[in-house]
Amino acid sequence: MAKLAGLLVLNKPPGISSRAAIDSLGLVLRGTKLGHAGTLDPLAGGVLVVCIGKATRLIPFVQRMPKEYRAAIRLGQRSDTHDLEGAIETVEVSQPPDAAQFDQCLSGFRGAIDQTPPQHSAVHVGGRRAYEFARAGQNVELAPRRVVIDRLACARFDYPEAELEIRCSSGTYVRSLVRDIGTTLGCGAVMTSLIRTAVGPFRLADAIAVDQLQRQNVAERILPPQAAVRDLPVVTLTDDLQTDVCHGRAVPASDRSREFAAGQAFALCSALGELVAVAALDATRTELRPRVVLMEHHEV
To answer: How far is CA 177 from CA 142, 168, 288, in A?
Structure first.
């Protein structure tokens, strides 16, 4: 199984780290390189997309995909981690928000927003992770980042408890979103649970539970590498062009390819539909230059 390559959609249970989930798969796929596209905090569960073998070169393409979540929150509290793992502080609220006020608040967070990451996060600050400073009792300046909230809906409201359904861009911190909702309402809020229900097209309903990992069912459920770039336009290569690409050489752009802007990424596939490489249209829009090559020349 060491030559396996592709993607596996795991259902990570709450209570373990993403690394522990990967290690469980590693016990099944011994000797195979593994990497996940998007860490889930130990508190969170749900979809964890694992890239296997040479498909680990495609991790950035999966990481950029939008994410979907179901988050449970509790109003009337704050914590330094914005969830239940931090020091909880009760907020005195004279007039709790009602469902209509809650919905109105949510409307202000839809679309493109600037979001400051949590102090307890893996953001790099001067070569160290922000959470390292936070654990030492030091707050650091974290720059806001632009994220996009495509969907933010209230699935349940029964003060102080509420449930949110979220679809957002890569890089969004749900804990920060919950913090900011609580701040806007004036009552504080903490996240009590988080389930990632989808990463791009990879959905929780199709995921395999960590405790069900076995050699046979893992092999049967591995998706081909091209699943990581299914949103890219496809160029089918002739045998000669495939050989060039496998050697890292640029190939001529087709008339259709030239209709795209310079820098556009393309999935270069064999006549059998196998992903050979990911290439980018050069500045002159006349060539496709390989950026990630998956197939070796001896495989042609």
So the answer is: 15, 11, 40
